[in-house]
Please model this.
Amino acid sequence: MHERAPDGAVLFDLDGTFADTAPDMAGALNRLLATHGRPPLRLATIRPHVSSGARGMLQIGFGLAPGDTGFERLRAEFLDLYARAICQGTLPFPGILELVERIEQRRVPWGIVTNKPARLTEALMAGMTPQHRLAERAACIVSGDTAPRPKPHPDPLLHACRLIDRPPERCWYIGDDPRDIAAGRSAGMRTLAATYGYLGVAAPPGRWGADGLIAHPLDVLQWLNQPRAPGAVTAGPGTAPPAPTRAASRPA
Model:
């Protein structure tokens, strides 16, 4: 039997929330480092920076930030290398495929809102576990160059709401970076911080201002079960949802 359908939507950040893109992002960075005569970095060193995209890769690999000499040239080189092998090791995080199936059973639209350039987002969504047709099933896919301003501005999330015809206050946005939570809050959405993601090197997730923290994708379902009247105040940052709706055991 299908579960009750609320009138909202669930939107995901891509890197570090919906998909584990770190192996391919790290591979592209190490190929770029080799091209410039630099030693490779360990995946564990690169992983926390993946949610920051090319900017994060060039910061950890070359110590460069936007505006620095050589940044734009290296950014173009990195994106080209990444595009050539974008789905070699990238997979949805464990639990994501079951989560989107459960969301679809509720007849709730879901989508992707990422800062990745559209050409990379589209290639990744089409090439990642193609048998699951994720790109076709997503109600919207909004990239970093879709709206006038990327996250942490709310523009991409508000654009997603227009595409799926849902008011922001009835939507959840899930991300693994402070920018995701800032964008969701600015858009008027409820937000969840994915502590299984990359998390960056800033403040811990409990201080991002999210409505809650999730340690596994399926934990989203517990939050969707919470009714919210128009104008109601959401739970405080890091607050636990009501009693779990699934077994506590999780895949490693």
